[in-house]
Structure formats: C-alpha cells, structure tokens
Amino acid sequence: MAQPLSPVQVVPADVSQIAASNQLGQFITLHKASTVPPGIFPSLLSLLVGFWFLAFNQGSIVLVILGILLLGLGLWMPVRQLLNRTMKVYVFSEGLVSIKGNSAEAVQWRQIDTVMQSSARYGLNILLFIPILRVETRVYNVKLADGRTLIFNRILEKVQALGEAIANGSGRYLLPKAIAAYTAGAPVQFGPFTVNQQGISQYNQGMPWNQYGRIMIGNGRTWLQYQGGKNIGGRVSIKDVPNFSVFIALVSYIVRGRQQG
C-alpha cells in the first residue's frame, strides 16, 4: 500500500528554509497549479462553436465577431493556466509560502490584515437562452499589513480549501482584535456591515441585538434577518465584505454571550 508523503519528501529544502526563517511552523499541505485548466469543457465548447461561426458565417459580420470572441474566451483559461503552471502554495501551521516562477513569498497568518473572497458563475448564451459557456470563478484577495497583496484563484487545485485555511489562520489573530474593539465600545467595520454594543447595521439600517435573527448566506451574497424572518435590506455581495469569516465569528461570539447572560 502506498504511504503518504512525509513533509520532508514534499517540501523542497529552499522552501523549508524560508518557512523556518519566517517561523511558519509545521507543514500542513501543498496546493499546486491544476493540471487541467478550470472550465476546460466550456473552453473546448467555446472553441468549437467559435470555429463553426467563422467557417460557416455566410458573410455575416455578427457571426464573425461572435466567432472571434468565442475563440478568445476558449483560449483564455488554458493559456492562463499554462503561464501559471509552476505556481505552488505550501501551507504551514503559522502561514504559507507562495511560489510562482523563480520567486517565493512567505506570509505569516498574523501579518494578514484583510481577506476578501468572491465566487461567481458567468455564462454566455446564444439567442438569449441557449447556454454555450459556463465558467465558475473563485478568488481570494489577501492584503497584508505591510501593503503586499496576494491573489489565489482556481488556477490552484482545491483553492477553496486554501482560502478556508487562510481565513482560519488569519482569523486566529483578527478575531481577538475585533472582540477587543467591540468590548471596548468601538464600532467594528466589515465593509457595509458595522457591529457595536447596540446592535448590527447594514449600510445605514440598524438592528438592535434584541431584534437580531441571523445572518443569511446564499449564491455568493449575504444579508441580515430580524427575528421572525424579515430582511433588514437588500443582499450584499460577499466579495464586498472584508474578513467575512471574522464577521460571522464575531457576531456568533456576541450572540452566544447575550444568550448566556
């Protein structure tokens, strides 16, 4: 039976040295660039339809333009994957090392200031209702306290698991700061949401804690509900909520505290 690779076998010596010098702790897992570009089947379909439009356009400039656009869309993801084929992210207990080409960047969880996450589905239809291309995107934009920014997307295998590891790791440091600010009476801002000792607000609409119901999440959006199920306002895209997991954890902490008296 095949045995799992040990950290010594998986992590190259230079990466181990970078991790040790940055005190990143124990190696957890590796995320490599996917061998198959995400959305490969929609890409192939886009290429086929694009070639068909160009070959059988019968002089229609509209079909020629559509064919060129579809060829570009079909080539975009495979080419992007090829250009980033050497990308790797080594995750450790206290941070990560991101490798791209000949450059390596180390990040400690405590250095992270903001994690922005987004996911979306895009499609292209013919005659408004015939789908020929469907693409799902997932992006994690990580901003550090020193001004650096790292972006991780579906070029990497299991990028959602990577995003969760980043959110959980940084949350160990960001959540206590948020709790301390809340306890001191300061408002804690999460983009369109503000949390304070009086309640929680979405943009300029406030909700006292004794009326708070829950935070709803669906289709990449989030919104607040009163007790009884009434929404406080419109839905907000999660990509516009910095440190979304910290926001959820802070509200849960406050609600538990109130329930316990």
Task: Write structural notes for this entry.
- With 261 residues, the chain is an alpha+beta fold.
- Helix content is 36%, strand content 33%.
- The protein has helices spanning 7-10, 13-21, 40-55, 61-83, 159-183, 244-259, and strands at 27-32, 88-92, 95-100, 103-108, 112-126, 130-144, 149-152, 188-190, 193-195, 199-202, 205-208, 212-218, 221-226, 236-237.
- Strands 1-2-3-4 form a four-stranded antiparallel β-sheet, with helices on both faces. A four-stranded antiparallel β-sheet has the order 8-9-10-11. A three-stranded antiparallel β-sheet has the order 5-6-7.
- A hairpin with a 3-residue loop joins strand 5 and strand 6.
- Helix 3 packs antiparallel against helix 4 and helix 5 (159-183) packs across helix 6.
- The longest helix is centred in the middle third of the chain and has 25 residues, at 159-183.
